Amino acid sequence: MSETDRISGKLRWSKLYTFSCLRPNVLETDGLHSLQGPGFSRVVYCNQPRVHRKKPLKYPSNYISTTKYNIITFLPKAIFEQFRRVANLYFLMAAILSLTPVAPFSAVSMIAPLAFVVGLSMAKEALEDWRRFMQDMKVNSRKVSIHKGDGTFGYKPWQKIRVGDVVKVEKDQFFPADLLLLSSSYDDGICYVETMNLDGETNLKVKRSLEVTLPLDGDVAFKDFTGKIRCEDPNPNLYTFVGNLEYDRQVYALDTNQILLRDSKLRNTAYVYGVVIFTGHDSKVMQNSTKSPSKRSTIERKMDYIIYFLFTLLVLISLISSIGFAVKTKFEMPEWWYLQPQNTTDLYDPTRPGLSGIFHLVTALILYGYLIPISLYVSIEVVKVLQATFINQDLHMYDEETGNPAQARTSNLNEELGQVDTILSDKTGTLTCNQMDFLKCSIAGVSYGVGSSEVEIAAKKQMAFDLSGHNSEIYSASMQNSRAQDSLENSGSDFGKSEIELETVITSKDEKYQKPMIKGFSFVDRRLMDGNWLKDPNVDAILLFFRILALCHTAIPEPNEETGSFNYEAESPDEGAFLVAAREFGFEFCGRTQTKVFIRERYPSSGHPVEREFKILSLLDFSSKRKRMSVIVQDEGGQILLLCKGADSIIFDRLSKNGRMHEESTSRHLNEYAEAGLRTLAFAYRKLEESEYSVWNSEFIKAKTTIGPDREAMLEHVSDMIEKDLILVGATAVEDKLQKGVPQCIDKLAQAGLKIWVLTGDKMETAINIGFSCSLLRQGMKQICITTVNTDLLAQDAKKAVKENVLMQLTNASQMINLEKDPHAAFALVIDGKTLSYALEEDMKHQFLSLAVNCASVICCRVSPKQKAMVTRLVKEGSGKTTLAIGDGANDVGMIQEADIGVGISGVEGMQAVMASDFSIAQFRFLERLLVVHGHWCYKRIAQMICYFFYKNIVFGLTLFYFEAYTGFSGQSVYDDWFMLLFNVILTSLPVISLGVFEQDVSSEVCLQFPALYQQGQRNMFFDWYRIFGWMANGLYSSLIIFFFNLNIFYDQAFRSEGQTADMAAVGATMFTCIIWAVNFQIAFTMSHFTWIQHLFVWGSICTWYIFLLLYGMSSPIISRNAFQILVEALAPAPIYWLVTLLVTIACNVPYLAYLSFQRSFNPMDHHIIQEIKYYKKDVEDQHMWKRECSKARQETKIGFTARVDAKIRQLRGKLQKKYPSLGVQNVIPPS
Amino acid sequence: MVIPNFARYVKSRSDRQLLHGLKYNKTSTCKPEESNNGLPIVPCGLIAWSLFNDTYTFARGMVELKVSRKNIAWKSDRNHKFGKHVYPFNFQNGTLIGGGKLDPSLSLSDQEDLIVWMRTAALPSFRKLYGRIEEDLEAEEVILVNLTNNYNTYSFGGKKTLVLSTSSWLGGKNDFLGIAYIAVGSSCIFISFVFMLLHVKNPR
What we know:
The complex is a heterodimer of chains A (1232) and B (204). Chain A is 47% helix and 16% strand. Chain A has 1232 residues and is an alpha+beta fold. Chain A folds into 5 domains: 75-136 and 294-373, no CATH class; 161-288, Distorted Sandwich (Calcium-transporting ATPase, cytoplasmic transduction domain A); 419-432 and 740-790 and 799-917, HAD superfamily/HAD-like (Rossmann fold), CATH 3.40.50; 533-735, Calcium-transporting ATPase, cytoplasmic domain N, CATH 3.40.1110; 943-1011 and 1021-1055 and 1064-1179, no CATH class. Chain B has 204 residues and is α+β, with helices and mostly antiparallel strands. Chain B is built from 6 helices and 7 strands, in the order H-H-E-E-H-E-E-E-H-H-E-E-H. In chain B, the strands form 3 sheets. A 3-stranded antiparallel sheet of chain B has the order 4-3-7, with no helix packed on it. Chains A and B meet through helix 31, helix 32 and helix 36 of A and helix 1, helix 2, helix 4 and helix 6 of B.
């Protein structure tokens, strides 16, 4: 154990932490909970797991299972699940009816495909469940140190843990179950817990054991440890715990501070001992797990309507058929002596035609069931799983840094990715990487730091764009308007060039960072670095500033062997950045004991560092309510100082009269920093007299030891008393770094016609800054800020007044947008959470939505997780468009589950968002590829696949119906049962699956180059009713051609030179051959991307049919019946058979080909043109033209940096002399 | 109009019995023509029961025209589907007499009329091969046909037609095939011509 560990091991943090962990030690028995009645029945005998082996104290083991089934329940449960689907139930009923004499075909031809389909779906279920099982096994077999008796500990897998076990959890391990904290490596039983997996919060939380269990701090101490815990029953509430501990004949109360929850992680603490209270599924996190709602894609929902339509059609033709049958039975059948109408069953009873008709209706429903393809569902499932594999395997979406690939967690939303209209994005961790860089500071009214933030880089970028835009403008002006087209094209090519320039700008910036690269520190200013600050006139203020940086925090230093300096375990990334900054400035925080902080101060003059110690008297820690933290320290000279850092508004309120010297300049700097997209904090201090402190401290201690609900309030009040009359020192600016490629990605997505909303919990200024750095906002864009004014009126009135005010702002803004004449004017809506709560109310939300839809970008700040979900729902339901929510933290879970598609960033902030999401990606920038490439492809694939599926089944099903009319509606089919069985299952399934899996209209590079192609999905061009009915009409036409051509050719004439006439088997087989050829040719024409797999499947299907017919004909005549040797003997030698096949195949496909030619010649779609350009390799020969096409294929967009360029070009072209106000922030609503 | 493709009719047969004869006795598919007086019927079922039994003889002038009634059924049917040692049994013995009778001394595989008849046609109006005239007939020649009208079509108003036809490599005379080919082909040519014109007129 190293020295620092020992030092930190000695720390008694309870002296420091005021709010979160200090509990009065006396009077502990007073707070006892009376644990009576239901809900509080749990009894845990500590260190006596044996007691819990038998009833009534037998609790579940720590084995967890998230699987849906087990080996025994799988079959019944999975079958039940399958038949809850309406379509499957229909097929099941058809299969059951096929066992009765009503059935038109043999039972096996109905049952076999159903069994196949259901079996395949069940296999998929089983596979997914198996994966879950493996995941569980991985968790269950994690090892933890467990007390084996006699004070010895040994490692055991998690699943072996029982209630009552004493476990020892080491640093950075997860807690295996819900534990009662007994003691930790710290003397006072403190430990740090990271609850990222539970609530997504990255800061560490402090837990503290009871005083009485503190002596249990070694393995041996547990030899004779016993105790009894009575507590609440398992429940999902993460933030409450009620229980008592009976120990040493005394009873102590327990609360959440002593409870370590499963799936949270031990941090900054060497080890803890704990007693297991809740195991496995009893633990709070498991009780909390909810299944994400099952989502269905738009296409699938629309498919249901097609199914209903086809079902109506089915019932209709069945009715026609059964009425026809009843009529025939009544009037004609008695005359058909050859049927012996007098000796019949109910099915064909001429005396009771009604009954026969009803029986026949059932027959017909089964017979024409081919209209509703049984295999459609299973084919779609197969296709989607394979598509998801492609997404998972895509190397372009693999993040090398974290090793996370993209993952389609549910495969049933693939095609929805191609239809997204609005993206709702979280900010922190999604657009930004939650890594803080100390960039600038303002000390005593002087701003330091010359490094530029990403926003400033973005501004530089824009300058580069402007320049290029200007150039092209001059060029086109010189060429006059005669070649206006060319100017556009030039701007395009210039855009390309400037993009390259920018790339270099960006890379050079990266290089610059890489050389001195210190994580969390990008500060560059010679005035402060290398001890130069000593020459500064404000040297005292600077010294104080540095000391605040180094002292005002709760971090722990960890020596880093490689560099010889320290790493800091901080509660928040900002704090870490401050400590790194302090270290770089020469104030290295190097140690912390119980009451002291050690700072190694380095002055260039003295040469070697001076170690100073500061006595920490009190620590008033940070909470989101207080928005500040303070330490009270005593330096070596005995001077007591209160050092405070906090949000600028809070600090400015607490300044003393003479502490406001630099307020004006500092707040100006703060604004500048905020504009540059930086996070700011203000620093202040106060000198305290010994007496003043001791008076206050007695108050403070009194407050600390108070018990009861008003303790918090009292503490806050006492803190307020000391945190006043501060003197402002300065401010810091920390950069929240944007993730890689975010602005480029947003630009591309905007070009693809997507709207992007940012929903963030951050404050408005930060959000706007990020908006600028992502190019969601730009100069010249009219910002509509909707905020509420703070009114001091009574609650009821205030609410009403505020609401009216918000409404007025909304109406004004809408009017302004409506009055706007300039088609290029862009608006941005910025709204904060408080206002949003009014705007989301029932009576106002539609106004809000219509305003938001008219704005190019929308930024919602200070929104709660619930509001995020509400906004998502509003957009989803209000606009009826597809929404995609992307986020990374637990606070985004609501939004992710609410949106049509939820995307989780599998980054640093825990797995909560990923677990709730439908897709997970490692970086925001992969969203571009996920949507523009995979979404586009999957949408087209599924759309075409479903259309084709209905087409082929209509072709097949209707021929059955036509034939019916010729058989007196008796329910006879012209095809052999086996043909029908194989049609959907084997003969036509593989080509359509290959279409669904491999089809690509254009390659992925082209998709990315032409983001406007994405709009084909947004506009749903491939699955609108015209297209669906077009395909159905095509199916109708083909069925007519196939049936009547065959009929007319075969019905009476001999088809062989020997004079044999065609019987039903021969006609059926020929007709079936025609269908196979026609539908397979159709799919070959539909495909635009061929690999050997498509060729194999399409042509292979046709071959398979002949091979099947051959083999079937070779089987015993008992099996093959009339198809016995049909190919070899009857069909193949007959030239007419081949001639008919050729004729019908061509006739069926001519209209589609004509339509294709017509469309390509006169009404080409974007991808048609690109395909042709690519096919003729024009893109290589004629770069010029290719570039022009590239630039034309963009959606008119008002956000993204391309829009910035366009705006600039327009600005120049219009020869506007007026200079735009800097940043163009126009608060259109005067603050009332 | 006979509806030979009526589902009840089509199913009323037993392929196993045709092959194995009396050895096979699960002939429930043959209902209602399954058994008579407690004895099974071979061949059972409505199809066989309603066997077509008109006969025709042809004469050219006074000379009888030879009509070959052999090899009118598929070879595979004769060899593999209709038993060589299966003889008609208890056939057309009931109170209801349907169509023709069979010679009980001839095995089913030799009863080619039956074999042809057992191949049910696809449509209500159909042709079956009766026999082949293997001599050349001259144009304008008069053929006398002597037919015995046994088969009852009056009850349901059916028509019977005797067709003398030549057969080519394509089988019988098939106008529709030719017309369809011409129609589809010409429409293809027409469409391609139109598109060619349009393409020349306004190329992209």
